[in-house]
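Worked problem 6 (solution included).
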Amino acid sequence: MSDYYDVIIAGGSVSGLLAAREVAAKGLSVIVLEEDTEIGTPEHCGGLVSLDGIQNLGIVPSNNAIQNNIKYAKICSPTKSFELNAEKQKVIVLDRRLFDKQIAFQAQKMGAEIRVRSSVLSVSKIEGTDDIYDDKCSYIIKTSEGRLSCKYFVDARGIGSLIHRNRQGILQSAQYEVYASWIIRDTIEVKFDRDKYPGFFAWIIPTGSERGKVGVAGRSINAANVLKSYMDSKGGTYSVVRKIYAPIWIMGPIEHFVSGRNIIIGDAAGQTKPTTAGGIYSSGIGGILAGKAIAISKQKDDDNLLHDYEKKWFSIFKSEFERMLIIRKLLERLDNKAIDELFSTLSEGEMRVASKMSDFDFHSTTISKMLFTPSGSKIIKTVLGNEVRRLFNS
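Solution. The predicted structure is:
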């Protein structure tokens, strides 16, 4: 015999916990199984999000969960840089350990059960069931603590669920917690360099004065060595007090989020931005929509309603993610000369306008609008020049 739950959720990050909150709020029995020893760890994410985005998830982060408020973003090419005012976007840096636990508390208050250090070893569809079930029970879940059964299984296990799909979509990254005088309290730094960080960039996310999260990602790089080189280039001394190594996904959402009563959410569904690999907001919305769809499906005894989750998520994010994928493909083709030329093309006035019309959670729209500024034709010429160089160097 196995313990039965209406819903079993594998993975206790933002999307899984928000799905549990929504399911439990409708009176369904739900358990979240987190393989790590603590909700919120290891903290793979940089923790950057807009305050508006977090509030749209139904959360008012506690003062302790907000590590910092960001006012500026310094964007660097190999030899140039410009600075954007980010105050309008109300960007904050979250302590993911405290923030995730805040959501876990919400879910638990609604009636969800949460277990840590509990791994899902296998998921077995009960023999004889179809995609549209009449049975109460659909899956047997073998865990490190024993067997469970459920009607709906939600996969929120992160990038590990994506590895078999497309290895080109996965980049290796390293992010360290660092103390250093060159970390400016209110300013994010992002550096593009095709040679050092192919396919991505290096970053500094300040969590306070002279402390922050410093990281790199890229294709076929030794992330630890590259990150050390980046920090060494800043000059002065620094101390690393924590190291995290984790893959990131940059290829956008998978084709389908729902198969029978198996529902995929968050990183496992590819709901992270192709440009930055950030996904607190987009993955969180995925968890909320999935939880609501499960509750309605159970209430009306109609599994077809599970697909409303997929339809609603794509209605919100499809266009944005498609534009980000185009931008990603373009950036991956640019050499350092083209990147420097692009930075030289953009005027300070246009940067101020871009700052005012930016939306942190939907930033591709801003980038698209910049093509229609006076510098738009120069940007296009730079891209074409880069393609000519690629042609002659191939």
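Discussion: The chain is about 35% helix and 25% strand.
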